[in-house]
Write a structure and sequence with these properties.
With about 180 residues, this protein is an alpha+beta fold. Helices cover about 20% and strands about 40% of the residues. It has two helices and twelve strands, in the order H-E-E-E-E-E-E-E-E-E-E-E-E-H. Strands 1, 2, 3, 4, 6, 7 and 12 form a seven-stranded antiparallel beta sheet that branches. Helix 1 runs antiparallel to helix 2. The two termini are about 15 Å apart. About 5% of the residues have low confidence.
Amino acid sequence: MKTIKKLAIAISALALMPSMAQADIIWDWSFANTSGQFITDGDDPTNPGIFTLIDFSVTASDVATLGSLSGGEYASDGFATTQPYAVHWDGNAVTLWDSAGNNSFDWWVFRDLMAAVESYIFFGWETGNINTVDQASYYNPPCCDAPSFLLTVTPASVPEPGTLLLFGLGLLGFGAARRKLS
């Protein structure tokens, strides 16, 4: 009877857990031969919303440094942009790259701190200083004609709260069965 009571308490706690905590969302991005991830706040990228940047990383590139904000290889600033950065998402695509700071541009700018010359990754930037949500570039000033490329941004697959609940219940079941056999 004691095991059943513990199991009921654990099931109740697992059922309440998804509603109490808001998970971070991992987004995969890529343009040209450069790709990486964003981590934002939020809990469901299938719904429209505004998601605030927590971390940024470059995981593959021919030109940019591999690294992240949290690792110290990048800074989220440049061209009068500052944190917080937020992305407006319609459930399928980015509709706005929102950056704070003294600018009139809707770009996310990340300064490559490890590059030999001052260089930046731009999201929402098209050649000619044009706001375009589906363009990105690796930019080396002072040239102003750096090419921009088609940008893809997609939420990485994350386990649904229901999947986590079932997994937790399975573990509890194995634990209870093992205990009963002992």
